[in-house]
Amino acid sequence: MINALGLLKERRFLPLFVTQFLGAFNDNLFKTAMVLFATYQIFNDPAVESNFNALATGLSLLPFFFLSALSGQLADSYDKAGIIRLVKLAEVGIMMFGATGLIIAKHGYATPGIVMMLGAVLMLGIHSTFFGPIKYAILPQHLDEDQVLGGTGLVEAGTYLSILLGTVTAGWIGVEAAAALVIVVALVGLAAGRQVPSAPRVGPMLKLNWNPLTASWRLIRQTMHIRRLFLAICAISFFWTIGAVLIVVFPPLAKNVLTADERVASLMIAIFSIGVAVGSVIINSMLKSEISAKYSPISVIGMALFVVAFSIESRLWIPAPPGSLYNVWHFVSHPQSLIVLGTLMGIATTGGMFVVPLYAFLTTTVTKDQTARTVAANNVVNAGAMVVGAAAVIALTALGVGPADMLLVVAGMCLISAWIARRLHLACD
Questions:
Q1: Displacement of CA 163 from its chain's centroid (Å)
Q2: Contact at 8 Å (CB) between 25 and 178?
């Protein structure tokens, strides 16, 4: 990864990195501001809070399920840089709409504000669906073969660092400031996107299939017959299902179990983002630019152990006095906080070590004219798995399962991911 940092000096990589960084920052700034605003200022019921977060997560993922096939076809048929510019232009309009929803809800019109905010989340999902395949598929066109893993790691690390900044910022600024900032960042992202070098079509022009269902099925069928792609996509999907559950659980867990305010909730999500970025750097160093899943099984087993430990620590937590919440200072001064935050960091770091090499498989197993569709197929399966994860949270919450018990479900899913990753490693030997 240290050697890969030199890519940040080159125009073939830097504008893409900045565009992706700002997009992920903006996406998470808006979503986190919305979720924390709804959790702490609109709703006052743990079950409703959890269900709202799950609904927001599900809405953001639906476009991946229905539109990823089309996005992959377009990215493999047209100049990827041109698509980036169109997508970033759309982001400006989406953020204006979402910002208006935040302001309306803040000023007492909760129902129309919530509808507009959730509508913006759905549109941001569409935005990410069309940008997602490109950020990975463009790398083999702009980078040398021995730089792809390093570039992938930088994109992944940059993504989670931007999630960190967006999450922390959302917890520390007001709703009005967040509404203004998302529009400004979208405009800067549009300017950065215009600097991405051209990445024209490599293979023949595709005949586009505009039917989302048949296109998705055909895309998955054409991709998943390659054994190591099938296993890599399955492993990544389980990981992101785990991630979806954790994202839904964190804010209610912070408020109702750890009895902490919204800034602590954003701190928890931020630490998770730091951990994934750290894991990306560690695994790149361990693999020395080799594309291999040999460390993925042990990494996700370690993640399962950290998740179980986090569940136990949540149950042993000494809550704030009734009717009050810990602020950041009181939380970090709590005698149990370092253990809780350290365990959370462990979950995220091992997760990053698990997933980064798997994304490198997606862009190096197939030819350059198929990379976007391969990433898109992965996104379809990932989105379906994450929607199932969000729906499972709603169902388990209805059955009375609390956040601490939900973490044990996550630990079990980690073991399944380890088994799939082990099969992937054996299939590639």
A1: 8
A2: no
Contact 284, 295 (CB under 8 A): no
Both tokens of 1, joined, read 């990864």
pLDDT of residue 427: 73
Alpha-carbon distance of 337 to 361, in angstroms, equals 37
Burial state string for 363-372 with b = 16 or more CB within 10 A and e = fewer than 16: bbbbebbbbb
Which residues are paired to 260 by β-bridges?
326
**Which stretch of 17-21, 285-289, 421-425 has the lowest confidence by average pLDDT?**
285-289
b/e per residue, 185-222, with b = 16+ CB within 10 A? bbeebbebbeebeebeebeeeeeebeebeebbeebbee
Could you give the C-alpha distances from 276 to 163, 169, 219, 384, in angstroms and in order?
10, 18, 29, 22
pLDDT score recorded for residue 388: 80
Q: List Cβ<8 Å contacts ≥24 apart for 337-343.
A: 339/313, 340/258, 340/310, 340/313, 340/314, 341/267, 341/268, 341/271, 343/306, 343/309, 343/310, 343/313
Span 128-146, pLDDT tens digits: 888 877 777 777 777 766 6
Q: Quick one: average pLDDT of 93-102?
A: 96
In the CATH scheme, what is the code of domain 12-200+218-428?
Answer: 1.20.1250.20
With a cut of 60, say whether residue 2 has pLDDT above it: no
Higher pLDDT: 174 or 221? It is 174
Q: Which of 155, 164, 125 is nearest to 28 (CA)?
A: 164
Show me where the domains of the chain are located.
12-200+218-428
Distance separating the N- and C-terminal Cα atoms of the chain: 24
Task: Scan for tokens 């377009």, then name that residue.
Answer: 74
- Is residue 186 within 8 A of residue 62, CB to CB? The reply is no
pLDDT > 70: percent of the chain: 91
Q: Is the dihedral of CA 88, 26, 392, 157 positive or negative?
A: positive
Give Cα separations from 165 to 26, 39, 160, 251, 266 (angstroms). 9, 20, 9, 17, 10
What's the pLDDT at 144?
A: 65
Q: Across residues 402-415, what is the average pLDDT?
A: 85
Q: What is the pLDDT of residues 182-195, one digit of tens each?
A: 999 999 999 998 98
Q: Which residues contact 245 (CB under 8 A, 6 or more apart)?
A: 389, 390, 392, 393, 406, 409, 410, 413
